[in-house]
Amino acid sequence: MNVDRFLPKNRMARAAVITAITLVAVLIFTQLLMPGRGDARGTPAAVLFAGLCKGAAAAIVTVGVVLLYRTLRIVNFAQVAMGIAGTILTFEFLQYTEVPFPAALALGVALSAAIGVLMGVLTLRFFSSSRLFLTVFTIVSASVLAGLGPQVRSLPFFPDFSKRTTAENLASQDPAQLLPFRGLKFQVGSFPVDFRFGHLLTLELAVLVFIGIWAFLRYTKAGVAIRALAENSERASLLGIGVGGMAVLVWMISGALAGVGVIARASITTPGSATGIGFGVLLPVFAAAVLGRMTNLPVAIGASIAIAVMSDAWNNSLQDRAELFDLGLLLVIATGLLLQRARGRSETGAGVSWSATDEPRPIPQVLRELSTVRMTRLSLIVFGIIAVLVFPFVVSTRNVSLGQVIALNAIAVVSLVVLTGWSGQVSLAQFAFVAIGAVVGGSITANTPIPFWFAVPLAAAVTGVVAVIVGLPALRIPGLFLLVATFAFALVVEEVLFDERYFGWLLPSDVDRPTFFMIDFENERAMYYLAVATLVLAIVIVTNLRRSRIGRTLIGLRENEANAKAFGVRAVRTKLVAFGIAGALCGMAGAVLAAQGRAVSQATFGVQESVDVFTAAVFGGVSTPFGALLGAAWFQIVEDFARDRAILQAFLQRGGTLFILLLAPGGLISLINVARDSVLRVIAQRRQLVVPSLTADFDAEAEDALLIPLGENDPSSGLGALPVGTRYSLESELYQGRGQRIVDKLKTKTGGRDAQAMTAAARAADDVETGAAPA
Asked: pTM value?
């Protein structure tokens, strides 16, 4: 269904109609649907004004998200994080130095803009890559920037943070004591809420930003170039526009907008709130951006303000049900996706791809049959099997439990191989599906007579159905929209699923570990082998799926969806099958994880875990199960090793991921494959074998030169000094096993006849060439 046909064709008239509909919807929601407090029904004007101010700050951030995606097709999860350091710098200047407010504000925004420039320069490495890796880059960068932002307090012109007094720490939480016009105080309506200069500042900054962005894009040469880049980057490049420079400029503007937005937010809440910003604040921003189709700035701005106003109205009336508002945002996103057109410009622009890199090349058959290669592969496989089997006998019980968790979490990462690596669909909800499987499987085991061995497939089936339902609205417009929908779903699952007011009847309080004949899985070693067996089952399913018709169809859709549709492939249905299979694998892992942990806890299944699963898959290599296993193992081992050292954990996980992505966008598995191909290339050269699949990326003439003598023949020595037509024989002194010489082998009866026949044929050929009569 396309709602555009119901709107006027004129742009001004359409904007007026959309604005009027939005205002009416907000008024109905806030004044009629909200019960209010006490005897007064509806929402007070003061609450609406507070929501307006928060919405204005959020709208500034939303503008940065839309501008970046509209121009470069990048979903920036670091949009808020880019403004953290600048916000802290601004308020540190105001509290501990004599720097005036305008200068402090300018310095904070400048720092955020500089961070944006740095992000832009780094993303140039991925400019032609899949948007999947750019998205992971921004996700990892968000965590890095959030961790490094507070380090601004350690600058030498600020007092030592560890020596600050309690009064100074308390003052830093009150923006009214740091901003100008400290005595300014006013109220809106009769509701007893005081508003300060920060609220007026937020509205002023928002108006200036909106007018400035509009004027910049419309009237400046750089703005026109950015608009051209948003339409078609290849055409803009042909017209002489410096695409790389414009990309960095857009990142700089986005960083400056992040700084202004987060500073405005801190001015009406607390400056210290900038350090505690998580992924949850991105949900309303992304919801507003999706409603604006990531291209329409006025609609996105209006949606952002409306969402903030309705959120404050909801919290005023239903403060103890705040999590349901996020559920409402998820429904709004799903509805907005269903009402939009199946394909939009934002998803069909030149160079846009949400697919992962190609699968790694297998070992060529000619080399696989060599005994050296065959024995090496067999040795590595045997060593891996022995290491997995012996592991629980040589480590402590704590590490055995860690091995159980690694194996089960790896299943969620492997599920992304089907969904992202082969189908090309992005999802940030895989661990949310694991949570559903854990709750359903644990509830069946704990509250019904159904045994564990039947509860696991039931939980997998239920989770697979839920995954299909989640993917259905967003698959009409893939890429960004599926990413936002799954991200919103992960947040809702974290907040709603584990709330006893809604699902107390389903949540298991105690989950017993299963038994199988004489095997009691209360034993940690037995439970370890069960987790490993579950992981092996998942890998077998994924491997066989790749060889099946469904797997080949998914690869075909990823490579060229238009061609696949021309052959009668139903793209949406096939992708939903991938969603269902990936969800079922997560549900199976969740059911076993509930038994492994003997309980189900909200702390285990947060949205951060879903983000980490997605990041680990891309870090290891999302196109192959082995790469996914590498990523899962690395992230889980680092998390356990640096559990009490947050900085070290962030450096190894986030910093390591950034380093690997900058070095090899294909993930860790691509580096391993490059090393493997180098070794195979050496083996092929020593065996004088030409293997095209190993030399496709190299100069053919250079490769041929490796198989022939490097110098010219010397006519005065060696073979070149022999007369033309001269034949000779040279007996070899080499031995061939147990004392038998090669020359003796050649003197057999059959060999003698062959040699005589070849000599006679050569003489006959010489006679023909010289014209002599045959003997």
From this structure: 0.81
